[in-house]
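Review form for a predicted model. The reviewer records the input and the model, then writes brief findings.
Reviewer: anonymous (R2)
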Amino acid sequence: MQLLHYEQDRKSAVQRTRLSVLVTSMVALLIPCHAVLVPWLDDDPFEEALIGVNDDSWNNGILSNTLPLHPSEVTEDNRSLDQKGNVPQYVIDNSPLIHLYSEEKYWPADIKDFVKKFQLRDHTGENIIKESLHDLSDLQESYSVELQNGTYDRIPSEGTYMTSLDDFSKDPKWLLGEQPAYGTGHIKKAPAVLFVVDKGNGWVDAFWFYFYPFNWGPYIMGSGPWGNHVGDWEHSLVRFYKGEPRYLWMSAHGGGTAYKFEAIEKIKRLRRIDGKLTNEAIKKPVIFSARGTHAHYASVGQHSHDVPFFFMPLSDFTDRGPLWDPSLNFYAYTVTVGETITPCGVEETEMGLDWLSFKGSWGDKQLTAKDPRQKWCPFQWKYIDGPRGPLFKNMERVSLCQRFKWWNFWKGCPARRYIKRGEGLDSEKNDLVGDNCGILLYNIRPKWLRGIFRFVTWRGSVCFIMDYFTG
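Model under review:
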């Protein structure tokens, strides 16, 4: 958890804010909607936590007592979790349900079983461990390696790769994962991984990590798939304030989308306390996992893949396929004062914590151009590197967003107030709900004029700007 980067982000935010104040004061008398011209004024609810390091109100304790903190700044006086290291009941009550795609091929899996199918190798293909991996304890931060002169040296795990013992291109059984049980949504052999992170001042972040053995990439104009990789970590974040869910963020291709919690669709489920079913009905948020890529979205349909506005040739697809309830089976950890990670159960304790410090890739190294399985298009290779583990997903962040896309140069992370609807034939939308930026056009009369505006703004940069800044 890199405090240095955090301090740099704060200083950068201070500079952005000072500039925004100057620009805003110039256009305030002329332009009613400043955020359109000053993108970082985009209602990011936690921007103040980044700019506060040099802000008088922060130094006076006004903002620092109300906003979430970097975990390294959480003390015994401002902590939000108890000292027992238990998972709060409100985290379980508001855990996301996931609609997996109806034609999904690569389902969730258990990381404990997954690692047994690999050897650990460096970037040259040399074995770091002579034998195959036996369990998670073989994943460590560094390794003792024998040198040519007979001596031993410690090398970091960064730059190492979990390399498949089988030919993954032939879809061995372990690569396919496990489907959820009909009705309950339980997957016995695919525990999720939960990190409950104390952000102080009443704020708690619940990170739900979902592991899939394989990422099946998208098609581009009928060609592909591209960007496939062994191992796939996805996650969602539910941010709580004093036990109440306030925001939900969901990952998608290294980026993601933040929502106000009340905006997300909910499904009624019977409440569970300590794993036992009760007669009390509660509403839990539901998100949708895209076919193959497992990127998360808040609605059904066709979604733009890794681009700032809708682009039909490169898309993700979601629908109301099998429902997965990760809260029925998960490994849990709490992150509290001093960034201390504490296992929350016997099984987690037996697994140890070393595997969390593993900096290598949870999957094979990108295949070389000479490999007959490898292909290339102007945008991507067919097989790329596997991902890194949960501790490298910026769980210490104060912003809702994990990181920012290349086009988000202002580094804003507003929480949407309306669900961003999918496109295409499978989408679910109507005039009462709206269709993304088009919702702003409903008041235009006559209809033929509205149609002209739709034609001009639809699926382009103008639509993206309208949609982004209005939530």
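Findings: Confidence is low (pLDDT under 50) at residues 1-11, 13-37, 57-62.
Further findings: Residues 89-392 form one domain.
Recommendation: see findings above.
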